[in-house]
Design brief:
The structure is a single chain. By secondary structure, the protein is mainly alpha-helical. It has a domain of about 45 residues. Helices cover about 90% and strands about 0% of the residues. The protein is elongated and about 60 Å long. Belongs to the FliQ/MopD/SpaQ family. It is a multi-pass membrane protein. InterPro entries: Bac_export_3.
Length: about 90
């Protein structure tokens, strides 16, 4: 029973960290998509690359800025949760 509880608790923590790490990138993609969609609706320009390029540039910029936060969050989770489970503490 204890192993199942530890497994599900670790899985819950891992999924929550995945949500936290992906939030900045998804938020930028959402905002860029809404802004570009609004621009396309106002100007009647229906170019496919117009939707792709701003999202890609925004996602790359946010990924570059938040890379340290993502790495630190994952290594903290690994050090505090996964390594003790592997070592048997």
């Amino acid at each position: 029973m204890l192993n199942e509880v530890m497994f599900y608790d670790t899985l819950r923590q891992a999924l929550w960290i995945g949500v936290i790490i992906s939030t900045p990138i998804l938020a930028v993609a959402l905002v860029a998509g809404v802004v570009v969609g609004l621009f396309q609706a106002l100007t009647s320009i229906q170019e496919m690359t117009l939707t792709f390029v701003p999202k890609l540039l925004g996602i790359l910029a946010v990924f570059w800025v938040s890379m340290g936060f993502m790495t630190e969050t994952l290594t903290d989770f690994f050090d505090s949760s996964i390594v003790p489970l592997i070592a048997g503490f």
